[in-house]
Structure formats: C-alpha cells, structure tokens
Amino acid sequence: MKLITGGAYQGKLDFAIKKYNINTTEIVNGETFDVADLSNIRCINNYHLFVKKLLENGENPISETSKIISENPDIIIIIDEIGNGIIPLEKNERIWREQVGKVGCLLAEKADTVERIICGIAIKIKG
Q1: Domain boundaries 2-126, corresponding CATH code
Q2: N or C end of the chain: smaller count of CB under 10 Å?
Q3: DSSP code of 23?
Q4: Rounded distance, CA 22 to CA 102, Å?
C-alpha cells in the first residue's frame, strides 16, 4: 500500500497519476465511493472525506481502513492533512479531524511508502 498526503490543492492526485501510471478510471473519490466497488480500483482520492462519510453513517473508520488495507494491499491512498490550523467549533468537525489523524497514522504504519506533497513536490517520508 502507498500513502500520499499533504495539504489541500498541493498536487497529490496529479503526482500519483504520473508516478504510478494510474488511469483515471482506476481512481475513486472517497466522498462518493462504496467499499464494495474496490475490485478494479488502484487509488482512493480524498480519503479524509471517506472517513467523514463513515462517521456520518456510524461506522468505525479504523476498522474499515484496516479492512481495505488487508483486502487491497497494492492500493494507493491519497489523504489531506486536516489537523493543522484552528480547532473547529463544531464537535462533529473535531471528531472528524481526530479520526482522520488516527486513520492517517494507521495508513502510514501499514504503508510501504509514504510521500508528502507540497507545491507539487514529493518528500519521501517512508520507504
């Protein structure tokens, strides 16, 4: 599994497409995809939005992420760093932010490679 992280609008998806030669039909958006649709998927973009969707549906992001990793060991996951800046006032937003951080830690631990993208430039953190 490969993890690509960084701030919003930093070029993470473009980097993944170029580096890993991904066809756009092999990418799903974390905000809208269903876990059952992972059979022909190489990349999940916006994984932080998938975490939000899981929380809204009362599901556990850690266990769902563990399941995705174990069933798709070659998947590429792209997740935004959302833990910086002002702490949200809304309780649900704070919970989401915390869960994205925990999921990010799990993903980084299990990943073969972790790359952080800043201004379109990759910094290899692991691998």
Answers
A1: 3.40.50.300
A2: C
A3: -
A4: 27
Find all residues with CB under 8 Å of 34, minimum gap 6, and list them.
none
Q: What does the pLDDT read at residue 84?
A: 85
Residue with tokens 């769902």, as numbered in its chain: 64
Q: Where are the alpha helices (DSSP H) in 7-77?
A: 12-20, 47-56, 61-71
**What pLDDT sits at residue 86?**
85
What six digits make up the tokens of 17?
Answer: 């497409």
**Domain ranges for the chain:** 2-126
User: Quick one: which of 126, 100, 113 has its CA closest to 7?
Assistant: 100
Name the pLDDT band for 101 (thresholds 50, 70, 90): very high
Q: How far apart are CA 76 and CA 28, in angstroms?
A: 11
